[in-house]
UniProtKB/TrEMBL annotation, chains A, B:
Name of the molecule in the record: 5'-nucleotidase SurE
GO cellular component, one term: cytoplasm
Nucleotide-binding among keywords: yes
Keywords, sorted A to Z: Cytoplasm, Hydrolase, Metal-binding, Nucleotide-binding
InterPro entries referenced in this protein's UniProt entry, alphabetically: SurE, SurE-like_Pase/nucleotidase, SurE-like_sf
UniProt lineage: Bacteria, Pseudomonadati, Candidatus Kryptoniota, Candidatus Thermokryptus
Needed cofactors: a divalent metal cation; Mg(2+)
Length: 262, 262
């Protein structure tokens, strides 16, 4: 039986990256698109609980393309699985193709990753895929082909339960790709600051800006370094945030005893 | 020298929980409040990059209480550390007191936890604290006293670097508290669904609802179970989402080889 793939993203349903992805996936499977109506970058794992959600059909080039949700990426996935596609089997969720890198600390701010996290929470094998460039009109075609290839690998082999894959594709021609590396979340980070400016009415406002810093240029096991060296980086991530090493340290520190109530 | 504590939350600067916390903390340290202007629950680790941020002084009972930011909890913390308090040492960040439990899967949706995560990313010892009840007007006073006690413990002992503490306090009188337990993130989850309704104009909308399910009633090491048994739960969490166990499995699965480009 033909497989069924749910597609979402955080750049919004009208983005180039999700379109390129869907065109390629339709060659190998049935595809349903449920994605945010608008650009939703850096929303983290937000869900909408205080407001209702609306769903509208979205057309592209005169054809039905998918469902636009006026919420976050996690909202779109939850609504797809629990309402719109409730009676359909979903074999795989793919979130992307994001326009921009989702490596290292960026993972925790990423709406793209959060859609795949929500899929995993709901028991669906899921991956997020990003094209590691901020150029205005990048070519998504190789990343889309790779997504289809990875989908077929997952149909055959599965993904460890409770794990999702965070995929970053270098923005270079296929001939320059060196291969695939299974990586860890790197320790690259934002050295950021705020610009303090005045609006046309003289009121102050702050705007976040910064530069991305990587001290792990030698370590190809870091997702960020792998991509910079033209490898496709695949990082298995999960949503158990417990720092198990710290549990022992804290128990030894006397924290439990000091606050003992009798 | 008197210590300096930065306080934020996700219920908004006007919430009861942050007020009770600040009153208690002022007894032991200097306190600066930088918090979202509005209620920001379930925003996950969102940051605002597409829009400017505004800051306004916020007064309570005729006195200056803190800075209100028209953004998310992570925005408020970043803006405090990188702009408003740039020249001041911050010894500790406390996020809360949240009105409602932040255990198990809730951690990844939690704005309260995200403020403490942002603090940790910026190198500040941080904890999130939540009162585990949804009753309309709970008594935050014991949780506030506990926060001050924990602050003093951290001033003496520190927190393992890169780790933050996620604290959940049971909503019972001090005399019924059984003690403190260092726990792990539990596996309790939302069994959720969407109500499909019609607005006054006949247009359909969806509203998220659900019930929280815990299959770990016997395991006091789960944050959720600990709180249900009247223990104060303290879970060390971090922001390295890598599933290290899965790395080996994926390498063995042949994923790197199948996609080898020569």
């Amino acid at each position: 039986m033909r497989k069924h793939i749910l597609v979402s993203n955080d750049d919004g349903i009208n983005a180039e990256g999700i379109y390129a992805l869907v065109v390629e996936l339709k060659k190998i499977a049935d595809v349903t698109v449920v994605a945010p109506e608008k650009q939703m970058s850096a929303v983290g794992h937000a869900i909408t609980v205080q407001y209702p959600l609306r769903v509208n059909p979205f057309y592209k080039n005169g054809e039905f393309f998918g469902y636009a949700v006026d919420g976050t990426p996690a909202d779109a996935v939850k609504l797809a699985v629990k309402a719109l596609l409730r009676d359909k089997k979903i074999d795989l969720l793919i979130s992307g193709i994001n326009h921009g890198m989702n490596t290292s600390i960026n993972i925790i701010y990423s709406g793209t990753v959060s859609a795949a996290t929500e899929g995993t929470i709901l028991g669906i094998p899921s991956f997020a895929i990003s094209l590691a460039t901020y150029e205005p009109n990048p070519d998504f075609s190789f990343a889309a082909k790779f997504a289809a290839k990875l989908a077929q690998f997952i149909f055959r082999n599965g993904i460890p339960s409770g794990t999702l894959l965070n995929v970053n594709v270098p923005p270079v021609p296929e001939s320059e790709i060196k291969g695939v590396l299974i990586t860890r979340q790197g320790k690259a980070f934002w050295d950021d600051w705020f610009d303090l400016r005045k609006d046309p009415n003289g009121r102050e406002y702050y705007w976040l800006t910064g530069k991305f810093v990587n001290y792990e240029h030698e370590d190809i096991n870091s997702d960020h370094t792998a991509v910079q060296n033209n490898y496709i980086s695949i990082t298995p991530i999960h949503f158990d945030l417990t720092d198990y090493e710290a549990i022992g340290k804290l128990k030894k520190s006397g924290l439990e005893e000091i606050f003992k109530f009798d």
